[in-house]
Amino acid sequence: MDQDTAAPAPGPLGRVWQLDLPGDVPGGGWRWTHYDLVAPGSLPAIRAEGWGEAALAVLHDKDESPRLEVEGEVVCGILPDFAQQSGPGEQLLASWRFAMTPTQITTARRAATQGLYRAWRAVQAGQVPDGPAALLDQVVAQLGAGISQRADALDDAARRVEDELLAEAPTRSPEELGRKLGEIRRETTRLQRLAVPVMRLVREETGDLPGWADAETHAAARRRMLAALDDLRALQEHGRALQDELSARQAAETNRNLNLLSVLTAVLLPPTLVSGFFGMNTEGLPWSGDGQGTAWAAGLMLASMAGTLALLRLRRIV
């Protein structure tokens, strides 16, 4: 997380910031208000801005499933993002909500998200979107870029697993490599489940948007999300190939162990038979009265083992 510019703290009504911005919209300007929904007074403050019941329901709905709704000139919805406190090793997820018209957008969240924070920082640096639809496009594009960045990190980890698999003397056991590969595939699946609903929204729902939020305004977001999905699909295919290779290596190792066990069983079977024969409590056993009988019996056991090994080598089993 960037630390050079701290986000403002929520006010008494949960309002984190309210910005009046210039842009290519009717009237020449638009307003962006952002709320922290954890604050008790956030709902009355949002209601006081004049939003309808449909927008209010979306903004305070506890369901975090991504969706996009249109009511006349008002567009509202819920979108996922990475949590602002996420570290490089693990990307925690959070949802944010919005309601917007041509000249106003209200965003709200329960946990701080990276996309909204970075959009706020960009505005502070003078990079102001043309309007609410452009702001939405910017935040979704940031999500796509974050997914691609995480996919690159996972791909690097997958390549390290691949190097271990192809090495003549791996430093990690197949079990360790399997666990690491499982973590990579699990994270890839999680990111794909995050990206697919967002891609579906910006691709399919844009046909229902009002004219001021035309589908063309979401071109950058679609490109970013498509690139992220392509990265995830490639990573998923790479993970499957590595899993197949690892399974083949583990099967070969298992076969070697079974072959060794079979050879040992075959080699030890004749001496076991000899020892069992001489262990019978019957009269007339060979060498029972000979002082060197034990040595002769041991020699017979060794000879049977040598004969078995010779036979196995002759049959090219060992």
Automatic annotation (TrEMBL):
Single annotated GO MF: magnesium ion transmembrane transporter activity
Stored InterPro entries: CorA_cytoplasmic_dom, CorA_TM1_TM2, MgTranspt_CorA/ZnTranspt_ZntB
Pfam families on file: CorA (PF01544)
Membrane association type: Multi-pass membrane protein
Location(s), subcellular: Cell membrane
Principal cellular location given in the protein's record: membrane
Highest rank taxon of the organism: Bacteria
Keyword set includes Transferase: no
GO CC entries: plasma membrane
UniProt cross-references to SUPFAM superfamilies, sorted A to Z: CorA soluble domain-like, Magnesium transport protein CorA, transmembrane region
Gene3D superfamilies: CorA soluble domain-like (3.30.460.20), Magnesium transport protein CorA, transmembrane region (1.20.58.340)
UniProt KW keywords: Cell inner membrane, Cell membrane, Ion transport, Membrane, Transmembrane, Transmembrane helix, Transport, Zinc
Transmembrane segments: 258-281, 293-312
Annotated family: Belongs to the CorA metal ion transporter (MIT) (TC 1.A.35) family.
Protein name according to UniProt: Magnesium transporter
Organism of origin: Teichococcus deserti
